[in-house]
């Protein structure tokens, strides 16, 4: 079984086992995903999107959209659809093709900076652990003023954490494929306890594992 098959199996198991919506965000009255899965996207639809915005989607994310769902059930308040994830950049129906390409380019940090961030994070009092939830990070650990816009560029938004926080997938630059947390001009990569940065599969499967454990323990 490959990793995508494993993620799909865990997702359907969680849907079956959490009928009472114990997992945070699954049934919030204003914004809960209720484990609904949107229809998948075809290769043609994905190719059209990539050609329009001049971006090649990270393979893990693209394969999920194509074979599992174009958003719906997912971490916190649910996984955005591809279109919703791009709209979170502040783009509208009146935006031009160049507007889309400009906002999906120029992620403001480098892979070297993200690696250094993880090293410094592990030297903090919080120690070496997996940094997945915003509350895992010490307040002083966030990058300061990394971008002046209300929305960071070079990413597709994955999920709303709440209180102005979001998880994003980098689609431009040498942090390509990494998942980061962003809030009000701050950025922080999601870190495994070995210092590596989360990919899309890492992010989604970690949420599945935590959610399945929560449901089984209650």
Can you describe what's shown?
This protein has seven helices and four strands; from the N terminus they run H-H-H-H-H-H-E-E-E-E-H. It starts with a helix and ends with a helix. The model has no long low-confidence stretch (mean pLDDT 89). The protein has helices spanning 3-17, 43-53, 59-67, 82-87, 97-103, 111-122, 200-217, and strands at 155-162, 165-170, 179-183, 186-189. By secondary structure, the protein is α+β, with helices and mostly antiparallel strands.
Task: Summarize this entry quickly.
This protein is 36% helix and 11% strand. The protein has 218 residues and is an alpha+beta fold.
Largest sheet: 4 strands, antiparallel
Rg over CA atoms = 17 Å
Give the number of DSSP strands: 4
Order of helices and strands: HHHHHHEEEEH
- For the largest beta sheet, what order do the strands appear in spatially? 1-2-3-4
* Shape annotation: globular
Estimated share of beta-strand residues: 5-15%
Annotation field: number of helices: 7
Q: Based on the coordinates given, report the CATH architecture.
A: 3-Layer(aba) Sandwich
How many domains would you count in the coordinates? 1
Helix/sheet category: alpha+beta
CATH superfamily: SMI1/KNR4-like
Tell me the span between the first and last alpha carbons.
Answer: 29 Å
At the first level of CATH, what is the class? Alpha Beta
Helix content: 25-40%
């Amino acid at each position: 079984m490959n990793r995508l098959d494993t993620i799909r199996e865990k997702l359907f198991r969680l849907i079956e086992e959490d009928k009472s919506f114990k997992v945070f965000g699954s049934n919030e009255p204003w914004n809960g995903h209720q484990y609904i899965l949107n229809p998948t996207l075809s290769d043609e639809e994905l190719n059209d999107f990539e050609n329009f915005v001049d971006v090649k989607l990270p393979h893990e994310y693209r394969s999920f959209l194509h074979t599992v769902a174009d958003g719906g059930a997912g971490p916190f308040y649910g996984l955005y659809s591809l279109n919703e994830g791009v709209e979170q950049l502040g783009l509208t129906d009146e935006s031009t093709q160049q507007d889309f390409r400009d906002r999906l380019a120029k992620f403001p940090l480098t892979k070297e900076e993200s690696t250094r961030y993880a090293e410094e994070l592990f030297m903090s009092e919080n120690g070496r652990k997996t940094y997945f939830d915003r509350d895992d990070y010490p307040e002083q650990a966030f990058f300061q003023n990394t971008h002046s816009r209300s929305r960071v560029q070079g990413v597709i938004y994955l999920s709303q954490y709440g209180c102005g926080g979001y998880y994003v997938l980098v689609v431009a630059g040498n942090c390509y494929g990494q998942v980061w947390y962003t809030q009000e001009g701050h950025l922080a990569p999601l870190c495994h306890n070995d210092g590596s940065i989360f990919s899309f599969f890492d992010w989604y499967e970690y949420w599945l594992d935590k959610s399945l454990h929560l449901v089984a323990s209650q």
